[in-house]
Specification:
The protein is an alpha/beta fold. It has nine helices and eleven strands. The protein has one domain: Spore Coat Polysaccharide Biosynthesis Protein SpsA, Chain A. Strands 5-4-1-6-10-7-11 form a seven-stranded mixed sheet, with helices on both faces. The protein is globular, with a radius of gyration of 19 Å. The protein starts with a strand and ends with a helix. The mean pLDDT is about 90.
Length: about 270
Amino acid sequence: MIGLILLGYGKSERFLKSLKDSNLLNSSLIINTKIYNYLLNSLKSNFNKILLKITDDKNIMDLSIEVFKRINNLIKTVVFVIDLNVDIKKYEGYFNEVLVTEGGILRQTSSYKGLQKLKESKYFNEIEYVIIHDLARPLINLKMINNIIDCIKEYDGCTLYINPTDSIAFEFDRNLSYVNREKTLLIQTPQIFKKEAIFNVHELSKSEKDVFTDDLSLLEFYTTYKINYIQGHKFNIKITDLNDYLIVFNLVNFLIENNLYQHYLEGNI
């Protein structure tokens, strides 16, 4: 059985900065009225980008949860790591057990707090695997989830990834050095772990000074663990700034309007 940790805590500072820099809400340009209203309404309360609407009846976090709901026979407990003022009552009927905790300043702190909350689950002893997912990635599908679940039986941790198509270079001492993009991976979530492995590495990492930007990198750091990488999807975009939101908004609504969204959710696109 699976414990699911959904990460959605934060002040969305990069998103708000990108919105301010764009001057979109003060612009005289003609833009999509729905986007304008969704952004304007969300700014009237404590802003969290995961509550931004993508359609009239679904926000960013709804889209991920709708997919996980389809495998609720495998999920024993869901832990939401979010601001405590976010209302999650509508999700309680989807899963066997729903728990909530606040996150931390760093992503790895939020993951750690989610794991500690998972220990309070009445199903904790039945849970074999833990999935950790960023709610800012709303375009997941069943194929992705089933692929990582199939993978974890032979590994301690598995993640989704895609290869970059742009050229990649890093700067060192004012010189650029190009990286072989064939050997470069862009890591995505959801990620899945054997329960013992993810709890162990988070406890070990408390004494480290390094900052880990995702949970699989913890297993990479402690090299005794077996990990695997599964092909993800370019649509599985993380909404960090306004441009990401506009891409996801238009992509989802295009799929819906052309009767393709359900095909995507099944992993057929």
